[in-house]
Design the sequence.
């Protein structure tokens, strides 16, 4: 029996993730039965779970893909890039996250699995480095810790994602960018009062 | 048969809503079966659905209660009040909202029911009036439309609620208040460039 090449394995992994993403978005996480995953992915359960141990693992891998892509956008295009990207996300897919929020909070092993995978993806470090770069170039205010800037940015991005998931019209991107800029941009709080980091 | 007094009716309505809130929080919306609602509320399904037509109506009434309370806090205690209130909300109850987000977006009649009830509650008008007052007193910036200020505030509050629902440590309240102040507070954007409302 010829071995499957690495390239073929990567392709298959991508095929599985893309199909699982569509299937979760269409049916919700609970509604994405193994039978539906098989149909949407076009592979048997044996083949699918050979690559990803469980449905949970499939979701975690997709969440890591998302963080990686969002981080790439932030690194390359800054605040404006991520804000524009988030208001274009698929509401059906965002709803899958919402469906799993309770589980993240109440299921310790699921929580740890997500945290470990996110850590392995290193998006947090890349985002932090990008914030520091923004502070050096004057794009972002430099009187706060990068962590504080990231935390506030996250609030706003999560608020946008939530509006999008609920089918609401999110506020205008230009407005969000202006006010985000006033809060964490390089021109914010030009006074010289020292700010004690939390 | 003696009629139930209005006062007794109001009491009973409150009893039903409080029990339903606990039941939804403990079991999730889907998990809150009619049998569980009966146990938690302490009334028969006949009595419960005599006051609220359906489980959906129970949730809608609770959501209206929430908006009314949040609006009251905003009117009385401004930005600081709502930010402090939101980070103290019960994560179990917040998760019920997340569970229903997909339905709000995909079920037109449910969406309309929520919108109509919120409108009847008039929280939006009270919030708007409070923003205008804040603009007059200098607490909030006056170079934006009240609607724009409200939209940005909503993003941040929703982001906080989401962090809370997921069991994350939300950013420090003081930091959020400082940056919110820089974005929409009276001292924001002190320059005199005119800003065209969207």
Sequence:
């Amino acid at each position: 029996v010829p071995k499957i090449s690495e390239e073929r394995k990567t392709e298959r992994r991508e095929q599985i993730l893309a199909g699982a993403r569509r299937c979760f978005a269409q049916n919700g996480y609970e509604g994405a039965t193994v039978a539906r995953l098989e149909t949407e992915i076009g592979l048997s359960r044996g083949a699918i779970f050979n690559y990803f141990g469980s449905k949970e693992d499939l979701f975690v891998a997709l969440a890591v893909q998302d963080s990686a892509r969002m981080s790439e956008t932030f690194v390359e295009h800054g605040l404006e890039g991520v804000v524009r990207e988030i208001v274009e996300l698929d509401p059906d897919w965002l709803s899958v996250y919402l469906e799993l929020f309770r589980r993240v909070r109440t299921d310790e092993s699921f929580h740890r699995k997500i945290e470990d995978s996110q850590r392995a993806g290193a998006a947090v470090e890349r985002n932090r480095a990008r914030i520091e770069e923004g502070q050096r170039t004057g794009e972002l205010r430099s009187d706060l810790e990068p962590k504080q800037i990231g935390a506030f940015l996250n609030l706003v991005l999560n608020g946008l994602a939530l509006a999008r998931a609920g089918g609401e019209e999110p506020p205008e991107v230009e407005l969000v960018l202006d006010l985000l800029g006033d809060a964490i941009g390089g021109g914010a709080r030009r006074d010289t009062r020292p700010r004690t980091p939390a």
